[in-house]
Amino acid sequence: MLIPSLLASTLVATSVVAKHCQNLSVPVTIRARNGVFNVATLRDNHDATTFFANFTKPKANFSNEVLLGYQTIDNTYDISVKFCQPDTGYGQTVQLLTHGIGFDKTYWDLSYNAYNYSYIDLAVDEYGFSTLSIDRLGIGNSSIADPLSIIQVPTELSAIYELTMMLRRGGLPNVPWAFSKIVHVGHSLGSILSYNLAAMDPTASDGLILTGFSQDSAYIDATFDAWASQLVRNNEPRRFGDLPTGYLTWANASSNEKTFLYPGFFDPAILQFSESNKEPYTTGEVLTLGSSPFTIPEFKGPVQVLVGNQDFIFCGGDCLATGDPALAGTSIPGEVAKAFPAAKAFEAYIQPNTGHAINLHYNATGAYKATQAFLISHGLGST
Ligand SMILES: *[C@@H]1O[C@H](CO)[C@@H](O)[C@H](O)[C@H]1NC(C)=O
Ligand SMILES: *[C@@H]1O[C@H](CO)[C@@H](O)[C@H](O)[C@H]1NC(C)=O
Ligand SMILES: *[C@@H]1O[C@H](CO)[C@@H](O)[C@H](O)[C@H]1NC(C)=O
Ligand SMILES: *[C@@H]1O[C@H](CO)[C@@H](O)[C@H](O)[C@H]1NC(C)=O
Ligand SMILES: *[C@@H]1O[C@H](CO)[C@@H](O)[C@H](O)[C@H]1NC(C)=O
Ligand SMILES: *[C@@H]1O[C@H](CO)[C@@H](O)[C@H](O)[C@H]1NC(C)=O
Ligand SMILES: *[C@@H]1O[C@H](CO)[C@@H](O)[C@H](O)[C@H]1NC(C)=O
């Protein structure tokens, strides 16, 4: 008798809400002010090395040295998105999920191990949110364009802004619903973009979840050193043989592990999975990464900064090591509070035993739950 009743309760517990998803390619009119950079087209891996040697030179600002001016981009590109909703309806809140460098929208819905690392499964099935996960412009199944002049932070930001406006007015193709609350959840470069969105228009977002993020750029050069970048067409000819030379990737699984993962707390096979599904980054992205304002005094929504304690890229491997005795008891991500003087709430959540790519660690679901709880406690739940 025991076994059937256990089985019955398991079935009941897991069949309450199920997610419905659709893949869409959304034409988006992008308007942005991009940098015009005087960098010669990379010819080979040697040029990729030289590009980063230039970029990481101490006490210099390579982006500024090669900046010739700005140009206005006004063009329509396709953004590949996946929209998911619970079968109970759209709800009031949609989470717009933006991935970071090295990933695409599947970061939020990893097929690995029967999807038990899926952020989307948890947010939709267990918490009733709708989600829109996007491939950033230039990445995944979104439009490919010139990696130096077009694929930059301002154009990627414009795409996110336009998709946000579509969700607000019920204008996303096949999703005839005007969401009253839109939360922007980012990882790494996706967090930088979500942050910049709130800076550009503080009313565009109702809440920010910035994962794998801080404002400490001290470890970026060490990250680029560990990456030992190559042209992605050389490194991954089977998947990316046709991409222009300004599309780059890190050298190998060792570079990936050092900068994205915390040894001992991830499944070794997920490193191979992630390495064989890695996505590139562009010279234009690298040159425009550091252009965010330091504070967003007008943003009034709640902000959670959720970072793996051992994040290499944004904390140098220890988020509690602020390096300043006056900041004892605080954390590097906690310093981001100063950027949001008017935020309704601010939380720096340090996820234990976790590196930069939070979603690839054993306890990823622990981190996701902390995010859903934060949203619910600040009026941004699904209902
Ligand atoms: C969306 O695309 C993914 C990746 O190609 C695929 O696994 C999934 O089945 C698609 N979903 C739908 C609803 O078509
Ligand atoms: C790196 O900087 C040197 C010296 O300014 C320049 O000649 C070279 O073209 C640059 N290379 C790349 C790939 O940025
Ligand atoms: C470097 O130069 C770029 C382009 O002028 C600028 O946006 C950025 O703020 C500068 N970075 C620093 C740290 O000064
Ligand atoms: C997924 O399942 C595997 C095997 O049971 C487990 O080791 C891992 O921690 C789980 N991961 C998540 C994120 O739940
Ligand atoms: C892109 O499209 C291909 C072909 O439909 C699919 O296999 C792949 O999973 C898609 N990737 C993403 C990131 O949507
Ligand atoms: C990975 O690439 C780095 C940088 O080129 C190199 O030092 C290292 O030996 C490589 N590791 C493996 C396992 O190939
Ligand atoms: C998993 O993450 C949750 C949320 O941060 C935390 O409370 C819990 O202690 C973590 N579990 C382990 C085994 O680290």
Kindly list the characteristics that best describe this protein.
11 strands, 383 residues, signal, 21% strand, disordered N terminus, alpha/beta, Rossmann fold, AB hydrolase-1 domain-containing protein, single chain
* CATH level-1 class: Alpha Beta
Poorly predicted regions are: 1-15
CATH-level-4 superfamily name: Alpha/Beta hydrolase fold, catalytic domain
Distance between the termini: 38 Å
Order of helices and strands: HEHHEEHHEHEHEHEHHEHHEHEHEH
CATH topology: Rossmann fold
Which molecules other than protein and nucleic acid are bound?
A: 2-acetamido-2-deoxy-beta-D-glucopyranose
Structure characterization notes:
Helix 6 (153-169) crosses helix 7 (189-200). Strand 5 (181-187), helix 7 (189-200) and strand 6 (207-211) form a beta-alpha-beta unit. This protein is an alpha/beta fold and 383 residues long. The radius of gyration is 20 Å and the shape is globular. Helix content is 33%, strand content 21%. It contains 15 helices and 11 strands. It has helices at residues 2-14, 45-55, 62-66, 112-115, 119-126, 153-169, 189-200, 220-227, 232-235, 237-240, 253-260, 268-276, 283-288, 312-315, 364-377; strands spanning 19-37, 67-86, 93-98, 130-134, 181-187, 207-211, 230-231, 247-249, 281-282, 303-308, 346-351. The strands form 2 sheets. An 8-stranded mixed β-sheet has the order 1-2-4-3-5-6-10-11, sandwiched between helices. It has a 3-stranded antiparallel β-sheet with strand order 7-8-9. It has one domain (19-377): Rossmann fold, CATH 3.40.50. The model is unreliable at 1-15 (pLDDT under 50). The longest helix is centred in the middle third of the chain and has 17 residues, at 153-169. InterPro entries: AB_hydrolase_1, AB_hydrolase_fold. It comes from Alectoria fallacina. Keywords: Signal. This is AB hydrolase-1 domain-containing protein.
